[in-house]
Amino acid sequence: MALSKRKRAEYFRYSQYTLLVVIALVIAFLADWEQIRTAFFNFKTMGDMFPNVITIALKNTLIYTALGFAFGLALGLVLALMKLSSIAPYRWIATVYIEFFRGIPALLVFIGLAFGVPLAFQIQFDIYSTVMLALGIVGAAYMAETIRAGIQAVPKGQVEAARSLGMSQGRAMITIVIPQAFRIILPPLTNELILLTKDSSLIYIIGLARDQYELTKFGRETLSRSPSLTPILVVGLCYLIITLPLGYLSRYLERRSGGKKVSVL
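Above: the chain's sequence. Below: its structure in token form.
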């Protein structure tokens, strides 16, 4: 007797579960757990990393990310408004900026600010300014497109209603359109914050004092003195402490907004 489509799907699902259990058991039996423990779970190394991995590295990562995000959000808003402007040169400038900084690695921006600008213009940025500008310049190119798409997603009737009440175009944009746009784009902006958190590790190319280390730099320095890869594991867990709550926040905000998404192409 032929099986129904529902039964076939059910048997297929159970076979996949069985296969995954078998693979897990094979790995469990074949793995050298003592070697894994030695390589990744050196508790003495873990103890030596605390509390500095939290009070210095994690704290600095959060500060660097916040600075870059704040600057990038402000610049991204300006670029988004320029791209939507009726003045063609503003649109051209915004488009060139966005395409350029979306197309080059963030590492090049760090190198340019840390070494190129002082050499060419005799301007020396401190560590916080360098991180804020580098992360913000790159982040703004992505956030500008997200903000632009959010503004365009606001129904035009909102602007028309505001104009009928005597509001100017600028006031309607600031008080009506932009607040609604930001409610729409909060999930993608949260994802951009996650990306900036990881990009903050690029600061390793700049000479840092020990109290300026972020997570990756702190992990690299500790790894050079460690007999195992435990520092990499600890640093990875610290990144997860930051990014996992942000990921859950992004999904929560997306559900709150009804799953509405914007196109940034």
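The domain at 44-256 is CATH 1.10.3720.10 (MetI-like fold).
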